[in-house]
Amino acid sequence: MPSELEVGQIVEGTVSGIAPFGAFVVLPTGKTGLVHISEVADAYVKDIKDYLKESDKVTVKVLSMDPSGKIALSIRQAQPKAQRETPSPRDSGHRERRASSQISFEDKMQRFMKDSEDRLQDLRRNTESKRGGRGASR
Question: What are the S1 motif domain coordinates in residue numbering (predicted)?
């Protein structure tokens, strides 16, 4: 068991609590650190419970330690680059996100442009109806 933690060190820990903003992890030294929700996975994490639950064993990297005793941790940065490419959420609803990463840039751009145009069209329609339609005087 390591006697003291150092910034940059990678250690095993156990999730002791889940909050909307992150997860608390008990480290081998007995101290507790926080993995902010942005440091859980490379992909956008909307609900941390899709990725972690209490008593999960996790590998974390120590990002910082301040004099007041707060320890910032990262699960994302503790993983090798190859593993970081594909997040591993708990529920199958995230499979679509992984599949979308295999779509070409051009296809993504085309979809974005179509969605954007549709939104602009809806916005124009709503704005015109509030002004009294086309040709209404201001």
Answer: 8-76
